[in-house]
């Protein structure tokens, strides 16, 4: 039976010009390169300059994805931006990206699920396309997390960076089997009871300030492996695939030890996991599309590849997407 699938037509990414190494950070807070690498796997991150906004990073990434897809911006009727660091309280950063790309039809809006944002945004776009409410979508993950960091807190400021990634989706008829191209299954979850483990201590409706990121790293680590591996197993059951049948795992780039823990729990070979953490740090909603773009440019993902995307973020939110390239 023919069905509509959301096929990934193109991917793109953009990083700020400035690179901050661990040695650079050691001049700001009491830390060392060795300490950061041992606990996170991060060696450097990109930091947005005054002229680089979340929207400008997102526009650049989306433009590259559209060029690779061979699709004109005027043919896009849906723009979704996953971000926890919008340019302004409103309008949505997605609307600014829409305008920056020259798109004047359809709709644009933001999704806020922190590090799970890109998985949430893909899931929403997939549902729009399958329902026939849009034909082509640009899904962006873009962040300037450096602007909500407490640069005196060495437990958090060493972990995060800025950047953007994007994909172009197109609704295409497929056969309705697990061999189809496009998004095969998605699962998103949340549990607000864990808010105090990873949050920002400010906001326009509470403190009238932006606030800073706060995290209980030990507890986040403990929950991440369990929740992420669980939702990935749900997606595998939905499609009938075994973990070793997936060609490539592209996880949210939070911490190398979390990624290793998930691989061991699912008994997945480390060479199937894409890791860009050492170069980008944790870029929240941007990390999965940045890693996907890296895998594409390294020719690790090609037509027919089965790709698993997964993430967990503040809230807690978490989710997974299985797609065939």
Structural account:
The protein is an alpha/beta fold and 325 residues long. The protein folds into 2 domains: 3-174, Peroxisomal Thiolase, Chain A, domain 1, CATH 3.40.47.10; 182-324, Thiolase/Chalcone synthase (Peroxisomal Thiolase, Chain A, domain 1), CATH 3.40.47.10. It is 32% helix and 27% strand. It has 10 helices and 13 strands. β12 and β13 form a beta hairpin. The longest helix is centred in the C-terminal third of the chain and has 23 residues, at 217-239. 51% of the residues are buried. The mean pLDDT is 96.
Offer a concise description of the structure.
This protein has ten helices and 13 strands. It is an alpha/beta fold and 325 residues long.
Structural class, from secondary structure content? alpha/beta
Largest sheet: 5 strands, mixed
Tell me the overall shape: globular
Assigned CATH architecture of the largest domain: 3-Layer(aba) Sandwich
Question: What is the strand arrangement across the widest sheet?
Answer: 1-7-6-4-5
Number of helices: 10
Radius of gyration: 18 Å
Name the poorly predicted regions: none
Quaternary state reads: single chain
> Helicity level, as a percent range?
25-40%
Report mean pLDDT, rounded to a whole number: 96
Strand content: 25-35%
Element-level helix/strand string: EEHHEHEHEHEHEEEEHEHHHEE
Q: Give the N-to-C terminal Cα separation.
A: 21 Å
Under the CATH scheme, which class of the largest domain? Alpha Beta
Count of β-strands: 13
What is the H level of CATH, i.e. the homologous superfamily of the largest domain?
Thiolase/Chalcone synthase
CATH topology of the largest domain: Peroxisomal Thiolase, Chain A, domain 1
């Amino acid at each position: 039976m023919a069905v509509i699938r959301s096929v990934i037509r193109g991917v793109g990414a953009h990083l700020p010009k400035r690179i901050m190494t661990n040695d650079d950070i050691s001049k700001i807070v009491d830390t060392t390169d060795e300490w950061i690498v041992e606990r996170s796997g991060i060696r450097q991150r990109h930091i947005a300059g005054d002229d680089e906004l979340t929207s400008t990073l997102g526009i650049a990434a989306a433009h590259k994805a559209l060029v690779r897809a061979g699709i004109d911006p005027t043919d896009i009727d849906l723009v979704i931006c996953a971000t926890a660091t919008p340019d302004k309280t409103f309008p949505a950063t997605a609307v600014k990206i829409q305008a920056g790309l020259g798109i004047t039809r359809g709709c644009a809006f933001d999704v806020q699920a922190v590090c799970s944002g890109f998985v949430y945004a893909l899931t929403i776009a997939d549902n729009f396309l399958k329902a026939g409410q849009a034909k082509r979508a640009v899904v962006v993950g873009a962040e300037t997390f450096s602007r909500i960091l407490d640069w005196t807190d060495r437990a958090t400021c060493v972990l995060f960076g800025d950047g953007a990634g994007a994909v172009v989706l197109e609704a295409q008829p497929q056969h309705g089997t697990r061999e189809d191209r496009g998004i095969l299954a998605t699962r998103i979850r949340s549990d607000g009871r864990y808010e105090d483990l990873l949050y920002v201590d400010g906001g326009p409706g509470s403190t009238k300030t932006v606030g800073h990121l706060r995290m209980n790293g030990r507890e986040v680590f403990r929950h991440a492996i369990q929740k992420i591996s669980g939702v990935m197993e749900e997606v595998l059951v939905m499609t009938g695939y075994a973990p070793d049948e997936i060609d490539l795992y592209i996880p949210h780039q939070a911490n190398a030890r979390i990624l290793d823990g998930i691989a061991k729990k699912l008994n997945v070979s480390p060479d199937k996991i894409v890791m860009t953490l050492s170069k980008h740090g944790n870029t929240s909603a941007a990390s999965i599309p940045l890693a996907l773009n890296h895998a594409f440019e390294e020719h690790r993902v090609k037509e027919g590849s089965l790709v698993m995307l997964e993430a967990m973020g503040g809230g807690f939110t978490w989710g997974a997407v299985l797609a065939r390239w």
